[in-house]
RNA sequence: GCCCGGGUGGUGGAAUGGUAGACACGGAGGCCUCAAAAGCCUUUGCUCGCAAGGGCGUGCGGGUUCGAGUCCCGCCCCGGGUACCA
């Protein structure tokens, strides 16, 4: 057994005591200033892994530190407990998803408690709990009422592996499923959508006010993909009929159109095709449809394929007729599914023109030395009639003005963002509370009948169809509107719906008659500090923002609440020797082994100390050695208790250099926490401890030693809560987590002597301690009196003196 | 291709334009021990020197500055996001 510091024993003792502690329980009428600190609630996957340790201990430092600073901190946690793994397990082993999930939650919760993270567990939320399902469904109906939920036939992303439809956001750029890695295929199904696009502008604009990592904001901006441009109507001539509308961000290039292209999915393609070309066009469209997304997307490489429709469109700007094509490089789902071909100023059009032998017409003067090809930069308009001589931006505006005046088009804004497909053909999710009636259509389940719960007596089979669809008792219902025979919706919601409002529910999870209590939401929201992984940069964070705005407009939360998360911190990932650590790879280094040996505090300290919290961590053979080092450090802290006697009433402490040194270190611990640089806080804590050992060896003033040690333990409290609680209790008989964070004597610190660097010709030569308010005259006197400096400066004295006092004096000779 | 990050000792990493490498890990040497483990002490960027002391050093090349790891320009490499979005 270890002499002295027995971490597992100490930790278990305190965790038992904390079970009933009210330290981190807060209420809506708490008089202290509030803070809402939230870590993304986890999917319950069994015992915690190192990623959890990082996430939840970083949050824990935040919570404990703020609490010690007199803040009422709302720190809840729950479980994102719907999802595929539980259902897949049910298919495999026959265990009901609820049993499976509850077991996993129990395991995860136990290891989070073992970690010593502080939560108000009374507020625990589980997505699969009927009391939560009820309000998820209530919110769905609210969105339906608001016109923000609708049903639509759509070509959807079907994952053969997961046997369900995926949201666009769940399909990776290579056309595979983010979960299973299977190639996603297109299917036409009737699906439920949420109209997130209604908030596209606000979602984009409000990003500016958020204190989020810039890269996350950039990812969201790109995802929304706002483009300003114009729609232009083109009359079809020569065998076809009607018109097509194209979208462009470069209306100024209209005079450069040498062809036009529609996407293979374009609905009017038949009408646009000349009869003699119909067969070839049909064959091409059919062939494209059989190709996978993956093949279609990888556009670079081969020449751009396409087929002429045999018809022409008229350029409204100059009346010229240009040929119309169908080509797969034009996307059916974006813009109007048709573009004007301007090879002079668009790279893709240039490639297509090259492949099809079409002409190129330049409408912007090239800069000197331009190598050729499409030119998309700024310049003077040429070959463009009334636009000639203008720069690109004014020409865009003039072109739109002309389009609108002449009735040939209009200025418009398009988004890359699409509506959010939320239907899932699975059992283990929140049922969509709708009843389909032949007479009345899709009727919402009356609010007083919520929650709609999935029946337990279903069969889990790997058919790809939800078990709900085969359950007569669930499906066959009376229409709530007309009382006639009707069918219950059997799709469930995307689990991202559950996580889009859980942070609101945490404000008052006890409310039984409403999803959230207005006063509680007003008190606690927005979340002051949100903490989680970057992998949610787009999906979860965008959906949650959308829900907040929609619920705010609906009057369910205050109308001033437009953004849920004021500050976001994304912690780094854990890798194992370069590759991602994951259960499926079987390369997990579980926290449990450390709990049993060096203890949770040492593991926590390692995660704080190993590097900046936002950086990725590579778990190597060295990590264990570092954890040992952290444990050794905590042992040194522990051992000081026996060596430093408690001094009653330690108010007065000698104002000596040693005291100043401790206070400077104290300052560094605090700023490290405030700046998300826990690694530097821990370094300062280690230096602080080293300093105490030196002072002890030098037989310093017992009051200084006790004061210093007391301060050290207070500062360790957020980082290593068990050890701090144990020592503080032993020495002072008080709960360290209810103490105030040690204050700093700024005045004293600022009056203390500081080091001044002396450079000669820019090279560092000497350091002296000086008064921080030293004048240049005084400084020069001090500096020139130093023999080394005098020798380097020589007889004539310095030619020039640059002084940034009290930091540096640079003498040029 | 485009958009972000990032390249600092053997390793993880510190450093509001002003002492580069804090704090650790690892290594070397020592103390304690019959021995080991643990613990403690010394040392540890490279290099010249017996020493005092000097020189060189933050991916590469330029620049700004009295002074650059830090700011600017151009490259190279690594990681992430995104990709025919008109």
In words, what does this structure look like?
The protein is of the alpha+beta class and 813 residues long. The strands form seven sheets. Strands 6, 7, 8, 9, 10, 11 and 12 form a seven-stranded mixed β-sheet that branches. The protein has a four-stranded parallel β-sheet with strand order 2-1-20-21, with helices on one face. Strands 4-3-5-13 form a four-stranded antiparallel β-sheet. α1 packs across α24 (721-732) and α20 packs across α22. It is globular and about 105 Å long. The model has no long low-confidence stretch (mean pLDDT 89).
How does the SSE layout of this entry go?
Blueprint: H1 7-18, E1 34-39, H2 50-68, E2 72-74, H3 84-93, H4 97-115, H5 130-145, E3 149-159, E4 164-166, E5 185-194, H6 200-205, H7 214-224, E6 227-237, E7 243-248, E8 259-262, H8 269-272, H9 278-290, H10 293-297, E9 306-314, E10 321-327, E11 338-341, H11 347-356, H12 392-406, E12 409-414, E13 420-421, E14 423-424, E15 434-437, E16 441-444, H13 472-475, E17 476-478, E18 485-488, E19 492-493, H14 495-498, H15 502-505, H16 518-524, E20 527-533, H17 539-553, E21 565-571, E22 574-576, E23 579-580, H18 592-596, H19 600-609, E24 617-619, H20 621-643, H21 657-674, H22 678-697, H23 702-716, H24 721-732, H25 746-751, E25 754-760, E26 763-770, H26 776-784, H27 787-793, E27 800-804, E28 808-812
Parallel strand pairs: 1-2, 1-20, 8-10, 20-21, 22-24, 25-28
Antiparallel strand pairs: 3-4, 3-5, 5-13, 6-7, 6-9, 6-12, 8-11, 9-10, 14-19, 15-16, 15-18, 17-18, 22-23, 25-26, 27-28
Helix pairs in contact: 1-24, 2-19, 3-4, 19-20, 19-22, 20-22, 21-22, 21-23, 22-23, 23-24
The structure holds one RNA strand of 86 nucleotides.
């Amino acid at each position: 057994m270890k002499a002295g510091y027995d971490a597992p024993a100490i930790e278990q003792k305190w965790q038992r005591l904390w079970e009933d502690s009210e330290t981190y329980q807060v209420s809506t009428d708490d008089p202290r200033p509030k803070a809402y600190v939230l870590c993304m609630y986890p999917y319950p996957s069994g015992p915690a892994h190192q990623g959890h340790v990082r996430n939840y201990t970083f949050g824990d430092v935040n919570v404990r530190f703020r609490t010690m600073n007199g803040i009422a901190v709302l720190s809840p946690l729950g479980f994102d407990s719907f999802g595929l793994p539980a259902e897949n397990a049910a298919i495999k082993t026959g265990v009901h998803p609820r049993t499976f999930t509850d077991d996993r939650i129990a395991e995860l919760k136990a290891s989070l408690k073992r970690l010593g993270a502080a939560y108000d567990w009374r507020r625990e939320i589980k997505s699969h709990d009927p009391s939560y399902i009820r309000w998820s469904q209530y919110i769905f109906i609210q969105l339906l009422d608001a016109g923000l939920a609708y049903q639509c036939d759509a070509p959807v992303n079907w994952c053969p592996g997961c046997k369900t439809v995926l949201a666009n956001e769940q399909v990776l750029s290579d056309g595979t499923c983010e979960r299973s890695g299977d190639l996603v295929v297109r299917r036409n199904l009737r699906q439920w959508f949420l109209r997130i696009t209604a908030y596209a502008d606000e979602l984009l604009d409000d990003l500016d006010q958020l204190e989020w990592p810039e890269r996350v904001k950039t990812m969201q901006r790109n995802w929304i993909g706002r483009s300003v441009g114009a729609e232009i109507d083109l009359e079809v001539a020569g065998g076809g009929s009607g018109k097509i509308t194209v979208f462009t961000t470069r209306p100024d290039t209209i005079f450069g159109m040498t062809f036009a292209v529609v996407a293979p999915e374009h609905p009017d393609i038949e009408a646009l095709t000349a009869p003699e070309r119909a067969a070839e066009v049909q064959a091409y469209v059919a062939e494209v449809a059989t190709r996978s997304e993956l093949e279609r997307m990888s556009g670079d490489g081969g020449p751009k394929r396409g087929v002429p429709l045999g018809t022409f469109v008229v350029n409204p700007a100059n009346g010229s007729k240009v040929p119309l094509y169908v080509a797969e490089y034009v996307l059916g789902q974006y813009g109007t599914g048709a573009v004007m071909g301007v090879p002079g100023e668009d790279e893709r059009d240039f490639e297509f023109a090259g492949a099809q032998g079409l002409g190129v017409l330049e409408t912007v003067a090239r800069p000197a030395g331009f190598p050729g090809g499409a030119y998309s930069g700024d310049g003077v308009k040429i070959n463009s009639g009334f636009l000639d001589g203008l720069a690109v931006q004014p020409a865009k505006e003039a072109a739109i003005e002309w389009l609108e005046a002449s009735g040939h088009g209009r200025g418009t804004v398009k988004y890359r963002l699409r509506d959010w497909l939320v239907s899932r053909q699975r059992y283990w999710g929140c049922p969509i509370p709708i009843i389909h009636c032949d007479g009345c259509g899709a009727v919402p389940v009356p609010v007083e009948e919520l929650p709609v719960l999935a029946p337990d007596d279903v069969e889990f089979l790997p058919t790809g169809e939800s078990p709900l669809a085969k359950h007569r008792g669930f499906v066959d219902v009376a229409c709530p509107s007309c009382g006639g025979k009707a069918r219950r919706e059997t799709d469930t919601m995307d689990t991202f719906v559950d996580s889009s409002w859980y942070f609101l529910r945490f404000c008052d999870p006890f409310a039984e008659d409403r999803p959230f209590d207005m006063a509680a939401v007003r008190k606690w929201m927005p979340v002051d500090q949100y903490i989680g992984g970057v992998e949610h940069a787009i999906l979860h964070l965008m959906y949650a923002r959308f829900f907040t705005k929609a619920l705010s407009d609906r009057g369910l939360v205050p109308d001033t609440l437009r953004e849920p998360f004021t500050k976001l911190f994304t912690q780094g990932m854990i890798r194992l020797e370069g590759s991602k650590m994951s259960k499926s790879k079987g390369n997990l280094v579980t926290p449990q082994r450390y709990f049993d040996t060096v203890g949770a505090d040492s593991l926590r300290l390692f995660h704080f100390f190993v590097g900046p919290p936002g950086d990725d961590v590579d778990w190597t053979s060295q990590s264990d050695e570092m954890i040992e080092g952290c444990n050794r450090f905590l042992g040194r802290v522990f051992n000081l208790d026996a060596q430093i006697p408690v001094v009653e009433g330690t108010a007065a402490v000698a104002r000596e250099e040693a005291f100043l040194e401790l206070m400077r270190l104290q300052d560094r611990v605090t700023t490290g926490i405030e700046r998300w640089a826990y690694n530097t806080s821990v370094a300062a804590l280690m230096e602080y401890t080293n300093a105490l050992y030196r002072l002890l060896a030098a037989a310093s003033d017992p009051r200084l030693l006790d004061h210093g040690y007391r301060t050290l333990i207070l500062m360790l409290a957020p980082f290593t809560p068990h050890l701090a609680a144990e020592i503080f209790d032993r020495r002072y008989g008080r709960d360290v987590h209810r103490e105030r964070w040690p204050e700093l004597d700024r005045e004293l610190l600022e009056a203390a002597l500081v080091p001044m660097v002396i450079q000669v010709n820019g090279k560092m030569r000497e350091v002296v301690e000086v008064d921080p308010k030293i004048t240049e005259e005084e400084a020069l006197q001090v500096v020139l009196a130093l023999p080394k400096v005098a020798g380097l400066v020589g007889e004539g004295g310095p030619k020039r003196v640059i002084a940034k006092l009290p930091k540096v004096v640079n003498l040029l000779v």
